[in-house]
Amino acid sequence: MASEQLEYGDTAFRRGVTRLIDSYEAIPDGATVRLSKKTSNLFRKRAETTTPGLDVSGLDKVIGVDPTARTAQVAGMCTYEDLVDATLPYGLAPTVVPQLKTITLGGAVTGMGIESTSFRSGLPHEAVLEIEILTGAGDLVVARPDNEFRDLYFGFPNSYGSLGYAVRLKIALEEVKPYVELRHVRFTDLRALQETMSAVADDRTYQGEPVDYLDGVVFSADESYLTLGTQTTAPGPVSDYTGSEIYYRSIQHADIAVPKRDRLTIRDYLWRWDTDWFWCSRAFGAQDPRIRRFWPKKYLRSSFYWKLIRYDHRWNIADRINSRKGLPANERVVQDIEVPINRTADFAEWFISEVPIEPIWLCPLRLADPGPAPAGSTEGQPWTLYPLERGRTYVNFGFWSAVPVTPGVPGHTNRRIENKVSELGGHKSLYSESFYPPEEFDRLYGGADYRGLKSKYDPKSRLLSLYEKTVKRA
Q1: Domains (ranges, CATH) in the chain?
Q2: Assign residue 94 a region: left if phi > 0, alpha if psi is -120 to 50, beta otherwise?
Q3: In the chain, count of helices (H) and strands (E)?
Q4: Which end of the chain has the smaller Cβ count within 10 Å, N or C?
């Protein structure tokens, strides 16, 4: 079965590569090269353009799964939903599965993905064994940590299409069991949560039970939770949060001494956040029982909410409604940041007191150890454009909402967050709006190393630079 899928997928994939290269060559000299696709998981607006984009049709499939080697070959536009559907029948899954079904493998690598296995498996790009990239110069190269394109391999994560686009990836998979046992541990003190999360991340156990998955939610300064997941083969009843029940509400309980327990199938666990886009579906009324009972189940998913967001981006619907009510326009505060784990409570306390957004998602991460190593080295190399320190644990904070604009100060709240994150020795993902001045951005995101990669793999600047894409939103 796997060999037949590989044969068919490889043929379709090669046809897609031909269309991709033909579309690159058809773009006029001097015109900016962009992807031509209908969907995106980026939260920043892009400038309108009439220039034809790269044709990625046919590059959205699983090419093949090798259950013996525990690897998968996928096209760059393949979604994690499709990949998980292909690997779970073998009892396998990607080492890190980002939370939303329509995130693509290429997007998670050229951007930044994270999930509840990141405290033990790092980030999605660390499972990449090799990656085929269409560079800004129009060359198709295969980058590995031990070949002549290793500088591109280590520089590609967090480049957001400014060096090239992922065409094919070979990734490592891990064995998974059919069910996940959950324990929701409540805290009334953020520093106690920080201490427990650090211990669990180090030991991978809690109260004598193993921990395979680890994340958390902060509802307020005196109500926060860690969710500890353990894989199991034991059959039994499971919960369903794909319909009327809402996952993040199931986490809450009153007992501080005794964790609340729950069970999910492995597939439902991997996509537990997608049904309600964490908690963001409430902005569309989807969590109101009076509305939810009539909401088609097939539209309870992040890809549908994205369509609603795109309508708002295009027509400024929310700001127009606020204007009619006499309210100020909104500043979107849609960000993921991370700080060293020992600064978790510092950032959470500051954020709760200064930014009127709740809940907040927490996800600890540590670069894989050992990580991919360049030729002649036995130690994993840090990733060029997102220099996390190997051996150190960080905590990702995710917060996705809006606050009233500060008149005359574009991005006021976002910029305050950027400053706080830097003060605490952290980093910020670039999938949403950023407001860094050029010098600070250069220092945080690769600097001279990035410029060297850019001149080597996109010498004519056919692709927008990282700063143009992520700050100027060109």
Answers
A1: 2-175 (3.30.465.10), 179-272 (no CATH)
A2: beta
A3: 16, 18
A4: N
